[in-house]
Each structure stands twice: as structure tokens, then as C-alpha cells.
Amino acid sequence: QVKLVESGGGSVQAGGSLRLACAASGNIVSTYCMGWFRQTPRTGREGVATIGAGGATYYAPSLEGRFTISKDNANNTLSLQLNDLKPEDAATYYCAADAVARCRPHLAPAFAHFGQGTQVTVSS
Q: What is the rounded CA–CA span in Å between residue 90 and residue 38?
């Protein structure tokens, strides 16, 4: 059974940074496509970033340059560094995983496995 547990959310001012973490069960970090998506009541789910089993990274075009996805295969963890945060980045962020061939951010909201989410609040 795949289990994903996010942590690291919080409240920051615009321009600030946060680092989100995801602890995964088993060895899925090294074998699955891993990613992050975010959700708000107004915008719904939006893919943020993905990282393939081999380490290739992909970002939603509007977020590339501010967000960085990374993983630690040995410790089965996934991370998302959020820099220069804007009020529109406020959302619940979810760690997600799936055994998909195309590891792209826009697919992350539909991944088979995801965690309970961690809340990010950005004040202007």
C-alpha cells in the first residue's frame, strides 16, 4: 500500500520561502513518477512539478524558476522548495505518485496516490 505524508506547510509573507517534504512508503520514490499538485476552492487542482524515476524534472511553465522539486531515493523522500512566494501560490499542496510513462506536471492531479496535503498561506 502506497502511503504519502506531507509536511512543511505554513504561513509566510510574499517573497518568502518554504520547503515542503513528503515521506513515502516503500521504494516508490526511486521507481515511480513523483510530483506535487496544489488545490484551492477557486482554481481546483493544478499540477506543480514532477520528477521521474531517473531524476528528470518538469515544471508547470508559470512556476519554473521559483519552485524546485527534488528527491532522496535512499530515504524515500520528495521535496518541493518554494521561493519568492506570491499570494496566488496559497493552496493546499499534495504529494502524488503514479507508475506513469509520461511524468508531466499536468498529469499530477490525477495520479493514483496522493497524501493528505499541507497548507501554504501567503500574505501580501
A: 9
Q: Are 122 and 13 in contact (CB under 8 A)?
A: yes
As a whole number of angstroms, the distance between CA 89 and CA 62 comes to 11
The tens-digit pLDDT sequence of the chain (124 residues) is 899 999 999 999 999 999 999 999 989 999 999 999 999 999 999 999 999 999 999 999 999 899 999 999 999 999 999 999 999 999 999 999 999 989 999 999 999 999 999 999 999 9
Residue count (the chain): 124
H/E element, 91? strand 91-98
Closest CA to 26 of 78, 100, 95, 76: 76
Cell of 54: 531517473
Count CB-CB contacts under 10 A for residue 102. Answer: 10
